[in-house]
Amino acid sequence: MDQHFIATTEAADQAATQDVVRLVDLKRRFGQTAALDGISLTVRKGEVLGIIGRSGAGKSTLIRCLNGLERPDTGEVFIEGREISRLGERELQPLRRRIGMIFQHFNLLSAKTVEDNVALPLKIEGRPKAERLKRAAELLDLVCLSEKAKAYPASLSGGQKQRVGIARALAARPALLLSDEATSALDPETTRSILALLKDINRQLGLTILLITHEMEVIRSIADRVAVIDAGRIVEEGPVWSVFADPQSDITRRLLGTVRPQLPPELAARLLPGAGTETVLRVDVAGEAAREPLLSDLAAAVPGPFRLVHGGIDHIQRQPVGTLFLSVPGSDASHLAEIITFLKSRQARVEVLGHVADPV
Ligand SMILES: Nc1ncnc2c1ncn2[C@@H]1O[C@H](COP(=O)(O)OP(=O)(O)OP(=O)(O)O)[C@@H](O)[C@H]1O
């Protein structure tokens, strides 16, 4: 056989086994509603993929197709390289154990202790008691809840309940952790600590995580890649920093909402579309372009005034992502045009927001 053919086939096989999840053109209708309308995506081993969408976008249907609770009308669902969408219940059982799940409302059994909740997946697998207790103790240590082993869920805070949920999801050493709005019922501080724990587990154990959320803040703090879904379709997909820096679709921009820097409301309220003595620009710059001394270069290249009225440089996935609001005084259209041309030549995106009489 052709050596080149063997090498490329092996490379393709290897790439396929690196994908913990691979969805191919998934479609699922409910009557007139296309809940999934041709979803294709992969989740690579060790990565955190965030799926975000508004209510009704198709997120739950997608999750249900992944764990075999829903069958797509057409398309394929590969988990660790195995197509599962046509399997019967018996064949699905061992594959479901490869997927741990955490939920918005934790789904703990109130009549069981914390350690018994954590060990439950192992009990279902028929593991001996000593092994179950040992694993539960390890996992409670991992989620910093060892002292609550004998407590009942009712005596725990929301954050502690979710830690138990995470420990239980990891009990059977899954290949994939599915998180379905796992922080939506928690306050901001507890949300941060749960997300930090998930990120830690992702790094320490190399665990692959697919998380579903309607909150961009969740995506920003934990995901490597994001897929935005709307009306059953992926409308945008990419590394988190680049989607935050340069959202391509209106839906993404809307979901980003206040997570992206905005002009302070008191200044935004004074913007006029066509008159005023100063022009206010929004300048977005990210990645390599944001490492350059953009403003001093602008001042050197284009004589004449401009002022910074708001903004700054943030870091997402260690990439600089900046938004600057500049105000350019005067009615000299060519000065304004030169500034815009210079900024665009430095890979910045520039938007004229309007005009003000006095920006500060
Ligand atoms: N069993 C069902 N029968 C009829 N319609 C359904 C069913 N399941 C989902 N749908 C419809 O499919 C679309 C996608 O629903 P889905 O629950 O997947 O969205 P979602 O993004 O998870 O929403 P939410 O964030 O509100 O949970 C919606 O229009 C919903 O009404």
UniProtKB/TrEMBL annotation:
<keyword id="KW-0029">Amino-acid transport</keyword>
<keyword id="KW-0547">Nucleotide-binding</keyword>
<dbReference type="GO" id="GO:0005886">
    <property type="term" value="C:plasma membrane"/>
</dbReference>
<keyword id="KW-1003">Cell membrane</keyword>
<comment type="function">
    <text>Part of the ABC transporter FtsEX involved in cellular division. Important for assembly or stability of the septal ring.</text>
</comment>
<dbReference type="InterPro" id="IPR027417">
    <property type="entry name" value="P-loop_NTPase"/>
</dbReference>
<keyword id="KW-1278">Translocase</keyword>
<dbReference type="InterPro" id="IPR045865">
    <property type="entry name" value="ACT-like_dom_sf"/>
</dbReference>
<dbReference type="InterPro" id="IPR018449">
    <property type="entry name" value="NIL_domain"/>
</dbReference>
<keyword id="KW-0813">Transport</keyword>
<dbReference type="InterPro" id="IPR041701">
    <property type="entry name" value="MetN_ABC"/>
</dbReference>
<dbReference type="GO" id="GO:0016887">
    <property type="term" value="F:ATP hydrolysis activity"/>
</dbReference>
<dbReference type="GO" id="GO:0006865">
    <property type="term" value="P:amino acid transport"/>
</dbReference>
<dbReference type="Pfam" id="PF09383">
    <property type="entry name" value="NIL"/>
</dbReference>
<dbReference type="InterPro" id="IPR003439">
    <property type="entry name" value="ABC_transporter-like_ATP-bd"/>
</dbReference>
<keyword id="KW-0067">ATP-binding</keyword>
<dbReference type="Pfam" id="PF00005">
    <property type="entry name" value="ABC_tran"/>
</dbReference>
<dbReference type="InterPro" id="IPR017871">
    <property type="entry name" value="ABC_transporter-like_CS"/>
</dbReference>
<dbReference type="GO" id="GO:0005524">
    <property type="term" value="F:ATP binding"/>
</dbReference>
<protein>
    <recommendedName>
        <fullName>Cell division ATP-binding protein FtsE</fullName>
    </recommendedName>
</protein>
<feature type="domain" description="ABC transporter">
    <location>
        <begin position="21"/>
        <end position="256"/>
    </location>
</feature>
<dbReference type="InterPro" id="IPR050086">
    <property type="entry name" value="MetN_ABC_transporter-like"/>
</dbReference>
<keyword id="KW-0472">Membrane</keyword>
<dbReference type="InterPro" id="IPR003593">
    <property type="entry name" value="AAA+_ATPase"/>
</dbReference>
<comment type="similarity">
    <text>Belongs to the ABC transporter superfamily.</text>
</comment>
